[in-house]
Design goal:
Length: 364
């Protein structure tokens, strides 16, 4: 087991990673408030890992209420915030309770938001069980739900008490979900860690084979990169926006296809190769760098083609982006592998060319 810290002054918290740690009460104890615990999980994860977590909490004399949401992105809704609050109120839970998010990014995001707003804020713990949640969504305190008009449009920055990532849970993760998580891993190499990008190029076979050493390196390195960025810009006043590389195109792909056709990481993967293409069109990166990015995303088995839709549809969805300022879409682009830049100064014609190139041919 290894721990690292997200350094946020009074709101600092540990990220524990290791095998079998879901069964370790000593990691949970310091993160729990005085009162009772409610575990929020989903219908896929509950049969796999709920019993182990319940035993751990019982060992701490914390029998828990369980709230099981249907698996899937549709569960990240305000209706389910109402449902969670209703269950907590019916059970008489007060401000001294702790919520425990056992699952992927969907469970983590909605549980974190429920914790942020229930009785104006209660404690919560992230217990991520997907690769995406371990390397990204469980760290950094972005919580929220979707609105029919846009993804993650209602939410709060609200940090957990701890992140406890048991890598054994990845054994049951379907291959497609695993690869989807790797898109966010590649993102860290692209935005600020050239050495990590090169390491991924050399070791992707071992990562895809889920070799324990390679997997551990991927998770710990990603968490450290994310923790460093969050510690420098918790509320996304500037720097933190680079974590959205690929998301401007990616969120548009998810929204335009009705959230379900593409997994989040798959849409981000397509978005990242499109951002690389746009960066090359603006002479920010060389063609050889664009080729390397495309090759790594391909080698990971992630998609690189955007669904064929009218350009105007994409542009419409891209405007509904939290990074937009004064109605202007802002992009995260690359100034070489390992260096990202945030800009609203992109000629619309170049954006259209990138969109057209990826709908028609893939690698422009
Ligand atoms: P998810 O939570 O839907 O999990 C993916 C699927 O895997 C689900 O069907 C789930 O039931 C199943 N599952 C989870 N753990 C499993 C396991 N160990 N074994 C077998 N099946 C398992 O999706 P995700 O990819 O984890 O997260 C995507 C969500 O995260 C999106 O809503 C996205 O917006 C959000 N996100 C948030 C942040 C953030 O900073 N808060 C960052 C990135 C993504
Ligand atoms: N996943 C983007 C962020 O946490 O800022």
């Amino acid at each position: 087991m290894r721990s690292l810290c997200v350094d946020l002054g009074q709101r600092s918290y540990p990220i524990h990673t290791g095998t079998g740690i879901l069964a370790d009460p000593s990691l949970f104890a310091p993160a729990l408030s005085k009162g009772p615990v409610a575990v929020v999980t989903d219908s896929n994860v509950a049969p796999l890992y709920l019993e182990t977590l319940q035993k751990t909490l019982k060992a701490l004399d914390k029998p828990s209420l369980t709230i099981i949401l249907p698996a899937g992105e549709e569960s990240k809704s305000l209706d389910n915030i109402q449902e969670i609050a209703g269950r907590l109120l019916s059970a008489g839970y007060g401000r001294d309770c702790t919520l425990c998010a056992l699952g992927g990014g969907v469970v983590g995001d909605i549980t974190g938001f429920a914790a942020a707003v229930y009785q104006r804020g209660v404690a919560y713990i992230q217990v991520p069980t997907t690769l995406l949640a371990m390397v990204d969504s469980s760290v950094g305190g972005k919580t929220g739900v979707n609105h029919p008009l846009g993804k993650n449009m209602i939410g709060a920055f609200y940090q957990p008490q701890a992140v406890i990532a048991d890598t054994d849970t990845l054994d049951s993760l379907p291959e497609r979900e695993f690869r989807s998580g790797l898109a966010e891993v590649i993102k860290y190499g692209l935005i600020n860690d050239q050495g990590f990008f090169s390491w991924l190029e050399d070791h992707m076979d071992a990562v895809l084979a889920r070799e324990p050493d390679a997997l551990t390196k991927v998770i710990r390195h990603s968490c450290k990169d994310k923790a460093d960025i969050v510690a420098r810009d918790e509320l996304e006043g500037g720097l933190r926006a680079i974590l959205n590389l690929g998301h401007t195109f990616g969120h548009a792909i998810e929204a335009a296809t009705g959230y379900g056709q593409y997994l989040h990481g798959e849409a981000v993967a397509i978005g990242m190769v499109m951002a690389a293409d746009l960066s090359r069109r603006l002479d920010l990166i060389r063609e050889s760098e664009q080729d390397r990015i495309y090759a790594l995303v391909k080698a990971t088995g992630l998609p690189t083609l955007a669904p064929a839709l009218p350009v105007a549809d994409y542009l419409g969805f891209m405007r509904v982006d939290k990074k937009a300022e004064e109605g202007r879409v802002r992009f995260i682009l690359l100034r070489g592998i390992g260096s990202a830049v945030i800009t609203g100064d992109v000629p619309p014609a170049a954006v259209t060319q990138t969109l057209q190139a990826f709908m028609e041919h893939g690698h422009a």
